[in-house]
Amino acid sequence: MTSIESPQTKTSVPASSGPDWRDDFGTGLGQLGLVFARTFLLMVPTIMLGALFTSNLPANIVFVMPALGFLVLTPRPVLLRLPLAPTLIIFCLWMGLSLLWSVDPGRTFFLLREDMAPVLGLMIVFGILPLEESLKWFIRGMKVMVVITALVLLFEPETRLWIRDGLESEAWRGWFLSKNEMGRSMLLAFMAMLYLDKTRVSRWVFMALAVVLLLGSSSATALAGAMFAVGIWVWGMQFRRTRRQWSGMFIFTSVVLGIFVLLAAFLSAAFLVELLGRDLSFSGRTDVWVPSLDYVQNRPILGYGYRALFGSPTEETLVLWRELGFNASHSHNGPLEIALGMGLIGLGMFFLVYLSTFTAALRYLKEFDVAVFSFCFMLVMLPVAVVEPVFQGDWFAMLVVCRMMLLRVRVETRGSHVPG
Fold this sequence. Notes:
The chain has 420 residues and is mainly alpha-helical. The chain has helices at residues 29-48, 60-63, 65-73, 76-79, 86-97, 105-128, 131-155, 179-196, 202-216, 220-241, 247-267, 269-275, 285-298, 315-324, 334-363, 369-387, 394-413, and strands spanning 162-164, 167-169. The chain has 17 helices and two strands. The chain has a two-stranded antiparallel sheet with strand order 1-2.
């Protein structure tokens, strides 16, 4: 098995299963299935990241139909080679089971449907298509999402304003739910183009556009994440240039330096948050964390149902809102949001998914760009999760993309020179 050369790195992704991999899908309906798969990949970044949230488009389940059509039309021998991720499947099942103990079953069912539709499609398409083909169309889908957002901001002036507590600020939000979600989405688009896009011209054009949109969102979290992502990209390039016998020493040195950087950041936290235009309460987020922790202690095992506690006037929610003094839409913290919705059992399951994906990324870090991207995304995900509930919803879908990409790497490199 050979690998595709990249101008930035030694290798990019495993080559497809030979130039005739399309023959595995036969003719007629099988080829129609490939059209469905590519269509889904063009649409899914826009849908999973919520770029059309405030528009009047149908429910997300509608947009997963091409992926389901692809599954139905895929020949059985190809389906038998579909890789599975047991920890991911078990966690998704637990999310669904939380409907049984949800304090607001209607809200939980609706959000499960909306959040899990893109995830299901991603597991199907990335699991069946060769990785090179999936990435090509997924990156194009990221570019579609960036273009749609830019056009919305250009032609709808009201989307360039962010209204909070009756006050207007010049922060871009597009058709996203909030400026923070837009900032996080542009961060993911920037990272995807930086690490995975191999086009010579459009890569830089869309990276620049994503940065402009990110800056326009005024999201300090997204800006810090972008700087961190560039730093990890530089680190990854240096790591892949080291000889294999020095790789362990390089990682050890990086860990030691990373500990010193984290210690320095902790000691200078007040200065750093002030530099980003924030304070040590993270714009009041700590006021939400304290009562949320009390609610976790009240139902530590199962929680209150997937995303059920915030957002609708249930008895539990009204008590929490009165304690907070305002109607918070979520806990502003990744681990807290999982624990509130699915208990400590669900939180443990999530970290099993996270760790299995992280170890797979480390395994292929020296060979493939998708591993470097996954490694970077997961490192960025942790600090962002301190202030945003990114362990579910849009960024959970991206975690699923990383998991499936790394599974495809294992499948496509089996029997080759890469450890499998």
